[in-house]
UniProtKB/TrEMBL annotation:
Subunit structure: Interacts with PSMC3. Part of a transient complex (modulator) containing PSMD9, PSMC6 and PSMC3 formed during the assembly of the 26S proteasome.
Domain PDZ: 90-182
Family: Belongs to the proteasome subunit p27 family.
Keywords: Chaperone
GO term, biological process aspect, one: proteasome regulatory particle assembly
Domain of life of the organism encoding this protein: Eukaryota
Biological role: Acts as a chaperone during the assembly of the 26S proteasome, specifically of the base subcomplex of the PA700/19S regulatory complex (RC). During the base subcomplex assembly is part of an intermediate PSMD9:PSMC6:PSMC3 module, also known as modulator trimer complex; PSMD9 is released during the further base assembly process.
The UniProt record lists the keyword Chaperone: yes
Name the UniProt record assigns to this protein: 26S proteasome non-ATPase regulatory subunit 9
GO cellular component term, pick one: cytoplasm
PANTHER family, A to Z: 26S PROTEASOME NON-ATPASE REGULATORY SUBUNIT 9
Organism, scientific name: Climacteris rufus
Length: 201
């Protein structure tokens, strides 16, 4: 089998293939050992000659020799495959780590660029009365106000500024810009008399 990582990145299926190969080799080694056990339990190191140095007649010498030879070869193959599995897993983990780091860096860069491009808010909406002009226009609690008609962070002094703009704009649409969930949102707001208090609610 080709060494993983020969020119192309290792995939999970490469690792699975190697693990299957490892399992096959282990099964073959087990079969060889069972064969040796079947030959009077001669194993890997049992003598193949009798007390008088004649080949043993009670075992199949050819089978024993072949099985022993196969075990040695298969153990070498097993060692090589284990090394390949280890290297492949190492490459997979390294790539996963690299990808994770890259994703994090990209997310961070995106968040930074968004933060830089978002204007500064000067007030936050802490309540919106249902059915009020503010509610009808789509203003939401926790919206951060960036522009309210002509009022922005550069000329805002206190909430009286907004009240003044509202009084002068009764019945006329006002352009309101808010930051909601990290994004800039434009809301068209028309201050007017309604069942509740004030022109906005």
């Amino acid at each position: 089998m080709a060494e993983p990582g020969g020119g192309r990145p290792v995939t999970l299926s490469d690792v699975q293939q190697l693990v299957r190969r490892k399992d096959e080799i282990e099964a073959q080694i087990k079969a060889c050992y069972e064969l040796l056990e079947g030959q009077k339990g001669v194993g890997m190191h049992g003598p193949l000659v009798d007390a008088e140095d004649f080949p043993r007649a009670d075992i199949d010498l050819y089978q024993v020799r072949t099985a022993r030879h196969n075990i040695i070869c298969l153990q070498n193959d097993h060692k090589a495959v284990m090394k390949q599995v280890e290297e492949a897993l190492h490459q997979l983990h390294a790539r996963e780590k690299e990808k994770h780091a890259k994703d994090e860096a990209e997310a961070l860069a995106e968040a930074r660029s968004q933060n830089q491009s978002l204007p500064q808010a000067f007030a936050r909406v802490n309540a919106v009365t249902p059915g009020s002009p503010a509610s009808v226009s789509g203003l939401q609690v926790d919206d951060e106000i960036v522009e309210f008609g002509s009022v922005n962070v550069n000329n805002f002094q206190n909430l009286q500024n907004i009240a003044t703009v509202v009084q002068h704009s009764e019945g006329r649409p006002l352009s309101v810009t808010v930051i909601r969930g990290g994004r800039r949102v434009h809301v068209g707001l028309t201050p007017k008399r309604w069942a509740g208090k004030g022109l906005l609610g």
